[in-house]
Design brief:
Number of strands: 0
Largest sheet: none
Low-confidence stretches: none
Shape: elongated
Number of domains: 1
Helix content: over 70%
Keywords: Membrane, Transmembrane, Transmembrane helix
Pfam family, one: DUF6803
Mean pLDDT: 91
Radius of gyration: 18 Å
Protein name: Permease
Length: 162
């Protein structure tokens, strides 16, 4: 069985440690900060304390930071890989696709935090929407990581045992 890696893993493994920091560490640290502070905010219902301020700051930064990643990778990876037919199978497409789809909940969270989304919602409604965005991001990020760590050859029919 040929051992190759998905473009997702290749991106993280190349240009060490910078790509790992830029494309994984910063977004994950921001997302984990949001997730952990979100739990304390939800349980304590303290919508104005220091944790809420940290949560809001991380939420604003995460969405716009990841939007930059999305645009950069779409232009420099997705389009060229698609045009040249260099995807390494379905696991590769799923990993990159789910990774980039993280822009939807993260940017949604940022737009919620700056008041462009959910303007007519109550504070509790905004809190629910915020928690939903966190949950969606955690799911898509973990799907991306799981498929990204697979060898693309796992799903190739020519290598499967019949």
């Amino acid at each position: 069985m040929e051992m190759t890696m998905t473009h997702y893993m290749e991106l993280l493994a190349t240009n060490q440690p910078w790509n790992l920091l830029i494309f994984m560490a910063v977004p994950v640290i921001l997302a984990e900060t949001i997730a952990v502070t979100e739990l304390f905010i939800l349980f304590g219902r303290n919508l104005s304390g220091g944790l809420r301020k940290l949560n809001k700051f991380a939420g604003i930064i995460a969405g716009f930071y990841f939007l930059g990643i999305f645009v950069y990778l779409f232009i420099n990876a997705v389009i060229p890989l698609t045009v040249s037919g260099q995807w390494r199978g379905i696991a590769d497409v799923i990993a990159v696709g789910f990774y980039l789809s993280g822009v939807i909940p993260l940017l949604g969270m940022s737009l919620l935090e700056i008041g462009l989304l959910g303007r007519h919602k109550t504070e509790e409604g905004k809190l629910k929407l915020h928690a939903t965005f966190v949950a969606i991001f955690l799911v898509v990020a973990h799907v991306a990581m799981i498929f990204g760590m697979l060898s693309p050859s796992v799903f190739q029919l020519s290598h499967m045992q019949m």
